[in-house]
Amino acid sequence: MAVWRSGEDSLFSLSATANTKHQNSDGGPFSLSAAENTKQLTALLGQSGDLKERSFLFKNAEGKLLYLETIVDSIRIEESILRPLSETDMQKAEEALTVSERQEMADSEKALTALLQGKVLLFFEGRSICIACGVERFSTRSIMEPMNEKVVRGAHDGFVESLNTNIALIRERMKSPGLMIEYVQLGEKTNTRVAIIYEKEIANPELVEEMKRRVNSIDIDMMFDPGFLEDMVEDTTLSPLPQVLQTERPDRAIANMMDGRILLFGDGSPTCIIMPVTFFALYQSPDDYNDRTFPGSFYRLLRFFSFFIAILLPGFYIAIVGFHYEVLPPDLILKMQGGVQTIPFPPIIEVLAMEVAIEIIREAGIRLPTPIGQTIGIVGGLVIGDAVVSAGFVSRTTVIVVALTAIASFVAPSTEMSTATRLIRFPLMITASLFGFYGLMFGLMFLFIHLCKLESLGRPYFAPMAPFNLKNVLQDTFIKQPAWKMNTRPLDSRPLKEVAESDSREWKKK
Amino acid sequence: MKKWIGLGLSCLLLTGCWDERQLKDQNIILGAAIDAPSKEEITLTIALPQPGNESQPTTTKQIVSATGRTVQESISKIDHKIGSGLQMGKMQVLLISKESVQHDIYPLLDTLYRNAVSSLNAKIIITEGEAEPFFRNELEGEPLYSHYYNSLIRSAEALTIVPKTNLQLFASPLFDKNDGEAAMAPLLAFNKEEKTAEVKGTALFDDKHMTGELSVAETTMLLLMKDEKEKEAALTYPVEKDKSMTIRVEEIKRKMKIHVPKDGPATVDLSYQLRYRTIDYPPDHLGDKKEVKEVDKKLSGEIKKSMEKTMDKIQEAHSDVLGIGLRVHAKDPDRFKQLNWDTAYPELNVKINVKAELIESGITF
Predict the structure, then answer these.
(1) pLDDT < 50 regions, chain B
(2) What is the per-residue pLDDT for A27?
(3) Helix or strand or coil: residue A362?
(4) Is the dihedral of CA A55, A58, A61, A64 positive or negative?
(5) How far is Cα A186 from Cα A182, in angstroms, rounded to an integer?
(6) Distance to chain A for B88, nearest Cα, Å
(7) Distance between CA A193 and CA A224 in Å, rounded?
(8) Which residues does chain A have within 8 Å of residue B89's beta carbon, measured at their own beta carbons?
(9) What is the spatial distance between Cα B143 and Cα B58, in angstroms, rounded to a whole number?
(10) Ordered DSSP codes for A194-257
(11) B46 Cα to chain A: minimum distance (Å)
(12) Residues A207-215: contacts with CB within 8 Å, 24+ apart?
């Protein structure tokens, strides 16, 4: 189990117990001999090729330096450890070292963990401790705008694979003493650092406790993908709808944190997991807030409209063509009949085949390098679409329906939500093909019952619709009010401080 | 989990879609014609459209007739000819010959009222002469006959020259047990020389059979009396010796007062306030207020005269299309039962009062 060191942004929140299970029993307290100590650690690491040992002299006593050369910065070892030790007049080695992070360790297991994290271990003859110095080398890519969360206006930076950089991005934006960053070490083999971040004065302590409880109970040997973390802490993993918000945008993460939500980061992944969220939060994009009220609200409404198109349109088409063609106006009905009359398949087969084809094209487009991906899109979309109609396998209307549906499903500003809508439409298509509009209604009823029942970190997922809260609905759910109208935070996360804004436009009252 | 997989797989074994009606298999008809010279002999004629696509527009594919003892029997006989089931759900027009409605019209419509998918906004049209030729004859430049008849009636409705009716509206007077209101339907004739159909006026019903008819001008008058002016209503009257004027009624207000004495015939006071504009006035000089007053007065008299004439005609046909019976029933139900409305209605004493007022005379003056 992991140990908590709350409230400080320390890199030394390592736990000894987290790593004990898999190590052999050679571990234990160090002896007085430096050579023996290094030997012990080398044995524990199994003669790893990148483990380097170097001897040095300090005040005529022999010392040993132990590090993994692949993850330390050799220049910093030279400048901050070796040079000070050879030139100093100080009597104690600790005083001579010029590294900013160092810690004394008396236990080989603890030392091993530090070694694996990129620390340099210093052993001195005659002392049964080692000094771990932080001279890690971070390999990070530069900060870029996330590919799948582009915005028109607003900040264009995104998280990267390094946890430290990600936290730096948050700290840069939020200089509040209430910003809490807590580390946990997860993954028996990977030893991944996971950070839980929240705003102490806003986030509800009960939720924070619950989040810690969930994270603490994770017992897994590999943890570097947000997917693992999500699966472990999500309330209902077997739901088609995501109950966490994944984002790579610092501004989005912070805006959610300021609503009293909690952020989860894992080292090695640029994705931030946000809980608790609501269904509607997954449809809010930073663009809404960067835009003015009317366009912001219009595009938000458009997104909800697209949600319904994405899940309902194919089912609706199947129901009409298979059961209720009477709902079509007379002029349209004969046109549509002319289109489907020569099609040899029932509508469900026709639509399913096209939907699956589009999903295949999409999947192929993602896997392929960009120039070929575009070609595949054109070949798949235009050529197959046109050929399949001319061959008389699929009606033109079906192609329109499937294309519209596919486009509408990509509108959701969260990738998980977009995938969810694409999956939900399949059961709805089947119910529509069995029972027409009835089936569609049944499917929708199941969906909405499920939505009302769903929870995210124990908080209602479908808030503020169920439980209903008119003020929140009007403020920032379907439409986006101007910033000076958003006086209170959304109440679904039960923030400690409800007021977010007051009288910002006092100047108008002269 | 295993339970759910088992359940899901067994779902595939279930039969489904037993009530599926796929669009591609349907024979959707847009119009039907009924000729019933006698009660036991009903001829149904339908026009099967050929669904269009991007290269060719929708056309009439086939005209099929069959005779049976009920409408449903005729439908099944047509089914025998064309293969799959007829779908009346999108019917736009139902043509019934004048001859067929001399006796009870209800048996001809019953199956349509019984069917849940029946198209309630189909227009009911009474035809001069047989109804079948309306589909058989050639119509100039009209690929879809039903469509043409439907739009013909729709535009006539907008001009207030035929009453607004459809299967649903037609039903309520038909089912009225007290006989307090009568049904009416537009009357259509076929012009063979010009290869067009022509609106002829209105067929008046008493209870369930046709008892009289009104010309186009009389229909407009009747609809004004009913306070059912549609988008436009134009009237033409002579003004001077050999000159006529045409007015457009902009607004009409009706006041209906009903007196039902304990004994003796009921009386009805109908007073109308009518505001109009001139759209054709050859004598000109409507800038003169004096002349306007004179025209108003003259028109009031003319309109009153035609209203009285129309009233006489519908009373003669025993057709209470104004729904006076309903009002009498509402006012004094006991007396209404005593009266026997069918005989009392023609005896009804109707007083009509019209006040016309010019509100606009156009650009010239």
Answers:
(1) none
(2) 60
(3) helix
(4) negative
(5) 13
(6) 10
(7) 9
(8) 325-326
(9) 7
(10) EEEEEETTTS-HHHHHHHHHHHHT---S---SHHHHHHHH-S-TTSSS-SSEEE--HHHHHHHH
(11) 16
(12) A207/A260, A207/A262, A207/A276, A207/A457, A207/A458, A207/A459, A207/A493, A207/A494, A208/A262, A210/A457, A210/A458, A211/A262, A211/A264, A211/A275, A211/A457, A212/A4, A212/A182, A215/A2, A215/A184, A215/A186, A215/A264
Q: Is B248 exposed, middle or buried (0-12, 13-18, 19+ CB in 10 A)?
A: middle
Instruction: Quote the ipTM score.
Output: 0.82
In eight-state DSSP terms, residue A29 is: B
pLDDT digits (tens, 9 = 90+) for A270-309: 999 999 999 999 999 888 888 899 999 999 999 999 999 9
Cβ(B34)–Cβ(B66) below 8 Å = no
At A319, list the tokens: 């129901």
E-assigned strands of A342-427?
A: none
- How far apart, in Å, are the Cα atoms of A452 and each of A402, A409, A466, B320? 29, 22, 6, 57
The rounded distance, in Å, linking the Cα atoms of A468 and B284 is 68
- Name the phi and psi angles at B59, rounded to 5: -135, 170
B residues 39-58 closer than 8 Å to A (CB): 49, 51-54, 58
Give the residue-averaged pLDDT of A492-506.
87
CA distance B254 to B221: 13
Q: Is B83 near chain A, with CB under 8 Å?
A: no
- How open is the CA angle B147-B153-B159, to the nearest 5 degrees? 135
A:B CB pairs within 8 Å: 72
Token pair 């990738």 is found at A415
Is it true that the peptide bond before A276 is cis, omega within 30 degrees of 0? yes
As a whole number of angstroms, the distance between CA A444 and CA A312 comes to 9
* B90–A336 CB contact, under 8 Å: no
Chain B residues 277-316 within an 8 A CB cutoff of chain A: none
Instruction: For residue A117, give the 3-state DSSP assignment.
Output: coil
What number is the average pLDDT over the span A349-367?
89
Rounded to 5°, the CA angle A54-A56-A59 comes to 160
**Cα A103 off chain centre by:** 32
Contact partners, residue B208, CB within 8 Å, separation at least 6: B104, B105, B106, B174
- Nearest residue to A161 via CA among A142, A181, A143, A140: A140
Cα dihedral sign, A201-A202-A206-A209: negative
Residue with token string 């899109």? A377
CB contact under 8 A, A340 and B17: no
CB < 8 Å from B in window 338-377 of A:
338-343, 346-347
The minimum CA-CA distance between A243 and chain B, rounded to whole Å, is 21
From the centroid of its chain, how far is CA A449? 27
Residues shown for chain B = 365
Burial of B4 (0-12, 13-18, 19+ CB in 10 A): exposed
CA A410 to chain centre: 18
**pLDDT digits over B195-252, tens only?**
889 999 999 998 888 999 999 999 999 999 988 888 889 999 888 778 888 999 999 9
d(CA B363, CA A222): 88
Neighbours of A326 (CB within 10 A): 15
The 3-class secondary structure across A430-479, one letter per residue, is: HHHHHHHHHHHHHHHHHHHHHHHHCEECCEECCCCCCCCCHHHHHHHCCC
Q: Does domain B232-365 have CATH number 3.30.300.210?
A: yes
Identify which of B354, B349, B179, B323 has the alpha carbon closest to the alpha carbon of residue B264: B349
- Residue of chain A nearest B31, judged by CA positions: A330
The minimal CB distance from A334 to the residues B17, B24, B58 is found for: B58
At residue A191, does pLDDT exceed 80?
yes
Q: How far apart are the C-alpha atoms of A130 and A64, rounded to whole Å?
A: 10
